[in-house]
Amino acid sequence: MQNDLTSLRQKTLDFNLVADYYLLDASGSVRNYKDWVNIIAANKKPTSKLYISYTLACSDETLATNITPAGATEIWWSYWQVLDKMKTGQTLILLSDFNSRYPLSDQESFLLQEKATKKGVTVYAVQL
After folding, report:
1. Which pLDDT value is given to residue 8?
2. pTM of the entire structure?
3. In whole angstroms, what is the distance from residue 39 CA to residue 33 CA?
């Protein structure tokens, strides 16, 4: 699991979580999910976007506070998708326990890092 995080810039943010994009893990193993939703709400800019990584069904525009964490941690596919939405100079904060059933291979980790680098975005990982 730790190898999956080595390509991400890690920094203690002291709950100053201002970013353009947020990706929050809503798997069953995440603790204090609702607290993290509130922390993001208190710090985000009006133009920021919050995406939830959730393996169960929910529709677009579902409120983050209406999601009950469940299922497996499969944050990497969601991370790839959010990177597609980002523009050069933007920032993403990835919040997860990174407890995936399927750890990233070295090649997959490289591809994620390469994609973020080519997009010119900054990604911070916060391990919950």
Report:
1. 55
2. 0.86
3. 10
